[in-house]
Every structure is written in C-alpha cells, then in structure tokens.
Specification:
It comes from Janthinobacterium fluminis. The chain is mainly beta. The protein has 1 helix and 8 strands, in the order E-H-E-E-E-E-E-E-E. It starts with a strand and ends with a strand.
C-alpha cells in the first residue's frame, strides 16, 4: 500500500478527480481512506434513490471514503450545510469543491478492483484480483 495525499482546488469535481488517479499512476486499485473540505454543490444519491439529489450552498465534507477501480468509483460522503444539517449518500459526478478538499488515498499496486454483477444483491459489486501486468 502506498499513501497518496491530494488537495483539490476550487471548481474541481471530486469524483472526476478521484477517478483520474488510477490512470495517472498506472494502477488498477485504490481506496479513499478519508476526505475533508468544502463544496458548493454536492450530488449525492441517497439510500434507495434512483438518481442523485443536488445540494447547493456552503457545505463541509465531514467524511469521504470508498474504492477506486478501472470500472469507476464507489464513494460515500457525508456533508453538513451552513445550518449543521448532515446528509450522506453515494457520491455522483458534480460534487464541486468550494475552497479545498484534502483526500488521503491508499494506492494498491498489487491488486485489481473491478465491479461484477452479484446475483445476491442485484448490483455490480467489488471483485478483488491480482493486478494485471501493464
């Protein structure tokens, strides 16, 4: 495992920036261990919902965690609005950094993550295998 710390700047899309990490480092697997920062827009798919909900305004990222694979990211985030109300869910594209986002990743050079259909859950779930040669 190799740690990597990212600092995202105002206007960056959190999910897009994280999904780009594997290609930038020629890797096939990573975990987001934690993230904090602020957002102008949070696009979160709430539990059981079919589509993301857009939250707008000054928000603080309380926690960000998940996995990164060549098939995309599986990320969860909790945010607090200016009144301290907390909302959490799956991170969709369009979570836009307000001032900064500080994110700690664990790069996993010996592993490959992918998402495969799971008959038990009905969703594409994490599948872990040895990394393929470059």
């Amino acid at each position: 495992m190799q740690p990597l710390t990212l600092r995202l700047s105002p206007g960056q899309d959190v999910r897009a920036a994280l999904e780009a990490v594997l290609a930038e480092h020629a890797l096939q697997a990573a975990f987001v261990l934690q993230g904090i920062g602020s957002l102008d827009v949070a696009q979160l798919r709430l539990a059981g919902a079919a589509a993301p909900t857009a939250l707008r305004g000054d928000m603080e990222i309380l926690t960000l965690a998940g996995s990164l694979s060549l098939d995309g990211a599986h990320l969860h985030m909790a945010v607090a609005d200016a009144q301290g109300r907390v909302t959490g869910g799956h991170v969709a594209g369009g979570c836009i950094v307000r001032t900064t986002a500080e994110i700690l990743l664990a790069l996993l050079p010996g592993q490959r993550f992918s998402r495969l259909p799971d008959a038990g859950t009905g969703y594409a779930e994490l599948f872990v295998a040895p990394a393929r040669p470059a």
